[in-house]
C-alpha cells in the first residue's frame, strides 16, 4: 500500500516537473509578477496591469513574427527598421485625414510584408546568412526612411486613430492591449493547429531532412519572413497608436528587445524549438523587470544593476525549470 | 553615543562631499566661462574667397539637426563668396566621422562645421584640419576647449535647465513635488540640466524632487516611465521636462490617468508637437533650444576666414516664450517632429 502511495506520489511529482519544464518561462513570469506585487501594489491594479500589456504591444507584436523565423532557424534583425519605416509611412499617408486611415494601414502592412518577403526570397534562394542579410536590410530600410522623410518624422496622425487604440473598454482595457493579446492568441492557436507551423519546426530541426522529405522549404521560408515583416509593420502601427511618432528612428534598438524576448522565451538560434507563447511571456518578464525597478524608485544606475540581475536570474530560473525532470 | 557620533560624522562627511561636488561644479562652470571668453588668434585662417564649406555631421537622425543643417545652408546662400556646402553624415559612427573629416580636408574645404558623435575620437582628424589652416567649429554640441577646435557655437544646457526650473517653480507657487524627465543618462545635456535644477531648488526649499528619470529623448519611453511614476506617487505637482519631445509623452500619460489637471508642466522647447500641446492646454510654454545655432556657426566661421578676432565660445541664448506666445509658433498643419524656426519657408526641410 505504502509502495503504491509512493509510486503515485512519484508520478505526480514527475508530472508536475514535466509541466514546469514545458512552462518554465510562465513560472518565471508568475514569480516575478508576485515579487513585483509584493513590492508595489500598482501591480495589483487592473488599469496598471493593462497598461503593461499596452506598453508591451509594439515589441510583443514584432516578437511574434520573429519567433516564426527563429523556429525556422533564421533571424530577423530588420524588424526595428521596419517598425520605424511603417510608423512614419502610416502617419504620412494618413495626413491628418480620417478617410485616409484604411489606405495608410493597408499600405504600411503591405510594405512590411513585402520587405519581409524580399528577406525570405534572398535567404531561400541565395542561402545568405539570415543574420547578415537582415542586418543589411535594416541598414537599407533606415536609409530609405531617412531619404523618404528628409530626416523629420513627417506625417500627421489622423484624429481618432490614437484615441481609438487607447480607448479603455470598461475604463480598464485599452483597445491596443486587446489587439496585442488577440494577435498573440491567434499566433499560439495557429502554431498549435496549422501544418505551416509544424513545417517550420521540421525545417528548423533538420532543413536537409525537411527538403528530402518533399517539404516546400523555400516557399515556407519566404512566407515566414513575409509574416515577420507583416508583424513588424503591425508593431510600427502599434507604436504609432501608443505614443505617436516623434522620430524617424522610433523603432531603433527594438530589434534587440525583440530578440531578447524570443530567446528568453525558449526559441533558439538553432531553430526547431520554442514558440510564440514563451515569447509573449518573456516580453512581459523583460517589461516588468524595467517597470519594477522604475516603480520601486531606484536610482537610475541601481535600476540598471537590478534590471540586469532580474534578467539573469529569470534566465537561470528558466534553465533550472527546463532541466529538472 | 557611538551611533550619534557615527550619524554626525557621516552627515558631516556627506555635507562636505556634496559641498565639494557643488563647488567643483561651480568651478568648472567658471573655468568654462573664462575659456569661452578667450579671443582666438585667427590670422592663420585668414584667406580670400571663394569658400567651400564642409559640414561633418555626426548624425542626421533627428529633426533638430536637420533644421540646424538647413540653417547652415540658408546662411551659405546669403554669402556670394560661398560656392559650395559639402555635407557628410557619420550616422553615429565615430570612425566614419574621422574618415568624413579627412575626406572634407582632401576635397579642399576652407571651413569645417561639425557636431560630434564622440569628441575625443575625432580630435586627431580635427587637428589635421587646423594644422592645414582649416578652422573647425563645434556646432550645437557643448563647449569644447581643445587646440583642435577653433571655436564652439553652443547652447548652454545649464542655463536652459535653470530657466526651465525657475519658470516651473514660479508657476507652482514655489512649492510641491516634482519629477525630472531628462535626456540620455551621462550626456552633457542630462548632467547640466539636473545640476541646474538642483541649484535652483536650493532657493526653493518647499520644492521636493521625487525622482530624476531618463527618457532618452524618446516620447514612448517618457510616457512609459511616467505611467510607472503615476502609480508610485499619489501626488505629483509638477514636471521638469526641458525637451518638448519627451514632455508630450509625459503629458499624455497624465492625461490618460485622468491626472493632468493636478500637474504643472515646465516649459519644453520649440518642438512642434509640444507647441501644439501648449496651444491646446495653454500652459508650459517654451525655453528655446534654437536650431539657428547652425546659422550662427557659419557666421562665426566666415568671420574667422576674414581674419576677425572671435571668442572661443559663442553662446546662442535660450529664450522663454510664454504659453500664449508659444501657441502662436505652433504649426498645426505640420508634423509633431518639426521645429519652430526663423527659416524662410523655402529653406524648411522638404
Automatic annotation (TrEMBL), chain A:
Annotated membrane topology: Multi-pass membrane protein
Keywords for the protein's UniProt record, in alphabetical order: Cell inner membrane, Cell membrane, Membrane, Transmembrane, Transmembrane helix, Transport
Question: Can the keyword Transport be found in this entry's annotation?
Answer: yes
The record's annotation in Pfam families points to: BPD_transp_2
Q: What is its main location?
A: membrane
Q: Does the keyword Transcription apply?
A: no
Named from the GO MF annotations, one term is: transmembrane transporter activity
Location of the protein in the cell: Cell membrane
Transmembrane region positions? 24-44, 56-89, 101-124, 131-149, 169-188, 222-243, 276-298, 304-321
A single GO cellular-component term on record = plasma membrane
Q: Which domain of life is it from?
A: Bacteria
Q: What is this protein called?
A: ABC transporter permease
Look up and give the organism this protein is from.
Sneathiella litorea
Q: What is the lineage of its organism?
A: Bacteria, Pseudomonadati, Pseudomonadota, Alphaproteobacteria, Sneathiellales
UniProtKB/TrEMBL annotation, chain B:
Which InterPro entries is this protein grouped with?
Peripla_BP_I, SBP_2_dom
Sorted alphabetically, the keyword list is:
Signal
Which ranges does the record mark as transmembrane? none
Subcellular location per UniProt equals: Cell envelope
Return the GO cellular component terms, semicolon-separated. Answer: cell envelope
Ranges where the Periplasmic binding protein domain occurs: 53-308
Reading the lineage from the top rank, the first entry is: Bacteria
Signal sequence, renumbered to the chain? 1-24
Q: What are the GO MF terms of this UniProt record? A: carbohydrate binding
Indicate whether Transmembrane appears among the record's keywords.
no
Family, similarity comment? Belongs to the bacterial solute-binding protein 2 family.
Give the protein's recorded name: Substrate-binding domain-containing protein
Organism of this sequence: Sneathiella litorea
